Amino acid sequence: MSYSPSIYKFVEGSDAPVPLDLEVVRSVLTPYDVGDPGRTMTEDGGLQYWVRAADGSEAEIFVDRTSILVERPHSGPDVFAVVAELAARLAAVIFDPSRGTFFCGPEAHAHLPVDMRQEAVLIDMTGEAVEAALIGPRLP
Question: pLDDT tens-digit profile of 29-55?
Fold first, then answer.
């Protein structure tokens, strides 16, 4: 079974995620993409990246109009730092499907629907904080 957190952006308390700024997505992910550049854009207009961070940690990332799926992120703070940067720059939330929990910074939190806002967990959008929230703290 693969582990796949996702990223969504909400605005003004709406229950539905809003379209993502794909230029922000490209600017964050392109420097880390080690996949085939000719396959970044999918036939349906989505984006796909194979991200490799400086520490060698990796994730496959699939982007559509309103969501980002982070497929099989390897444990390592650098790939989670890329995910954190993406969420922070989009003012978006990270959803952990294994627990049904949303993690976000204060800017994204303010835009969540009221019922989600009460249950969302505020974290710093850093690689270490995102990794700890999603898979637990690193042991020394």
Answer: 999 998 776 667 677 778 899 999 999
Count of residues making up the chain = 140
- Is 31 a domain residue? yes
Question: Domain containing 35: what range?
Answer: 6-135
Q: Would you put residue 95 in left (φ > 0), alpha (ψ -120 to 50) or beta?
A: beta
Rounding to the nearest 10 degrees, give the CA dihedral for residues 63, 22, 131, 39. 50
Is residue 140 included in any domain, yes or no?
A: no
Give the pLDDT confidence of 50-77 residue by residue, as tens digits: 999 999 999 999 999 999 999 988 877 8
